[in-house]
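EI: anyone free to look at a 240-residue chain?
SC: sure, send it
EI:
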Amino acid sequence: MESGPAVILFAPAGGELGSARASPGLAPGLRDFGFAVCPCPDLRHLPDCIIDAGAGSCLILAGTPTQNCLAASLARTLEQGLGIVALVPPQHEQAMIQVLSSGADTYCVRGVSIELVAAVLSALLRRLRQSAMGRPSPRWSMQEQGWVLAGPGGCRVPLTTGERAFLDALLKAPGMRASHDVLTAAVNAAYGAAGKSRQVRQLGLLVSRMRRKCEDQGAALPLHSVHGWGYMFAQGTPAA
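SC: here you go
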């Protein structure tokens, strides 16, 4: 990845910058201002782009209003600390309201100068850095041979066979994200190895149970669903 603050440019085909009529100058212009620009061609690639960009990065939404809202919602679910700037049509107040409600931090009217977009990004990144400096970094780990999930604030959650297998497979997966099929197979294999005939069919129930256990101890489990695909452990730095 290029040096400099990381900026993900979400510009899908058919979007405001993804179309043939769109200006191609935003990415090189931002690079001239010292940003490391990572193109993101569609929603499917957005989780990987967020992982590659790392903490303290920003996302520019340059699709249609509908595409931008979907991307903002997904990105905010995956990474709470991500800075999100939406490019919106001029004199389109409803698009501004919708994308802010979906998770964007701020917006720029489409067609403004690259200098203004760069200034907005710099201000947002500065605020994110200041916020991160005053916020403790939560750390989660699997302890006692993986049978206890330990979290911030002294949270210690005992795990069932299925929950242990689910978390073990997820935390060992690239980017700590795995598909429903991979996670389901891991849970079913664990039950088989333990001599149990149980087969998990709905991972959502298993995840809900783990969330409740953590909430009972005052901690929010940083486990997020990637719609239609799988799950991602998105906050903190889990340790084996």
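EI: Residues 141-233 form a domain with the Arc Repressor Mutant, subunit A fold (CATH 1.10.10.10).
SC: 👍
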